[in-house]
């Protein structure tokens, strides 16, 4: 009887665990559209469009730009840029972006964070040029946080600040990623829903094998 119970529990785990995992992880949060060719998504070429997930890397070439459309926000990734899409924010490694958002989407460049000052439609541009961050508030006010603290950039104004604090011991290198290469560590590869799903399946498979070994049910102490 106990062995039959174990089989039933394991069978239910196999059925429900992957389904719940992929239901939560495999839902795209935006669409990516390439213009001009040369746009890369996680190291692979994007012919026209593709679903975009939080954690994905987008790289444009010298003659290409890309649009990211999500609920309440649109982003223009300028040519020769490299970003990581994070759902409600963007991490700009180099190049520039133009953001229009009513959902308070923010942009991060090194130690600098740029976000709408209010939860209203806001349009702004952020560029990373040789370690200097150029910020322009087109529509609405911006909140800018850097090594000097947080300040407000009013509509129509522009400012420039350092990407990282001068005291930082780990100044980011300005060399861009190798075209066609998948960025290393963490990011879209290790956080990919497919990788997580495969890992989860391996864990469940090992559990099934252990539980079904031998004819004697496990005692409460084991």
Helix-strand category = alpha+beta
Percent in strands: 35-45%
Oligomer: single chain
Q: On the 0-100 scale, what is the average pLDDT?
A: 76
Structure description:
- There is one protein chain.
- The chain is of the alpha+beta class and 222 residues long.
- It has a domain at 31-180: Sandwich (Jelly Rolls), CATH 2.60.120.1440.
- Helices cover 21% and strands 38% of the residues.
- The chain has helices spanning 2-25, 187-190, 193-211, and strands at residues 30-35, 40-41, 44-45, 49-52, 57-59, 65-70, 73-77, 82-85, 89-101, 106-109, 112-116, 122-129, 132-139, 142-146, 149-153, 158-162.
- The model is unreliable at 6-24 and 168-222 (pLDDT under 50).
- It has a 16-stranded mixed β-sheet that branches.
Which SSEs are present, and which pair or pack?
Elements: H1 2-25, E1 30-35, E2 40-41, E3 44-45, E4 49-52, E5 57-59, E6 65-70, E7 73-77, E8 82-85, E9 89-101, E10 106-109, E11 112-116, E12 122-129, E13 132-139, E14 142-146, E15 149-153, E16 158-162, H2 187-190, H3 193-211
Parallel strand pairs: 9-10
Antiparallel strand pairs: 1-4, 1-6, 2-3, 2-5, 5-8, 6-7, 7-9, 8-9, 9-12, 10-11, 11-14, 12-13, 13-16, 14-15
Helix pairs in contact: 1-3
Structure described in brief:
With about 220 residues, the chain is of the alpha+beta class. It has helices at about 1-25, 185-190, 195-210; strands spanning about 30-35, 40, 45, 50, 55-60, 65-70, 75, 80-85, 90-100, 105-110, 110-115, 120-130, 130-140, 140-145, 150-155, 160.
Any key phrases for this structure?
222 residues; alpha+beta; Jelly Rolls; 16 strands
């Amino acid at each position: 009887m106990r062995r039959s119970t174990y089989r039933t529990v394991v069978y239910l785990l196999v059925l429900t665990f992957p389904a719940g995992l992929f239901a939560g992880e495999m839902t795209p949060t935006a669409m990516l559209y390439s213009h001009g060719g040369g746009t890369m998504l996680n190291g692979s070429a994007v012919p026209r469009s593709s679903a975009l997930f939080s954690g994905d890397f987008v790289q444009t070439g010298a003659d290409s730009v890309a649009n990211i459309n999500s609920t309440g926000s649109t982003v223009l990734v300028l040519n020769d840029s490299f970003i990581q899409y994070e759902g409600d924010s963007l991490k700009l490694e180099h190049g520039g972006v133009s953001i229009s958002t009513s959902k308070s989407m923010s942009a991060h460049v090194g130690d600098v964070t740029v976000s709408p000052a209010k939860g209203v439609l806001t349009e702004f541009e952020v560029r990373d040029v040789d370690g200097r961050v150029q910020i322009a508030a087109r529509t609405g006010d911006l909140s800018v946080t850097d090594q000097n603290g947080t300040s407000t950039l009013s509509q129509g104004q522009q400012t420039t600040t350092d990407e990282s604090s001068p005291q930082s011991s780990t100044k980011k290198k300005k060399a861009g990623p190798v075209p066609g290469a998948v960025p290393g560590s963490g990011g879209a590869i290790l956080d990919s829903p497919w990788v997580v799903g495969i890992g989860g399946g391996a864990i469940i498979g090992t559990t099934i094998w252990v539980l079904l070994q031998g004819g004697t049910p496990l005692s409460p102490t084991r």
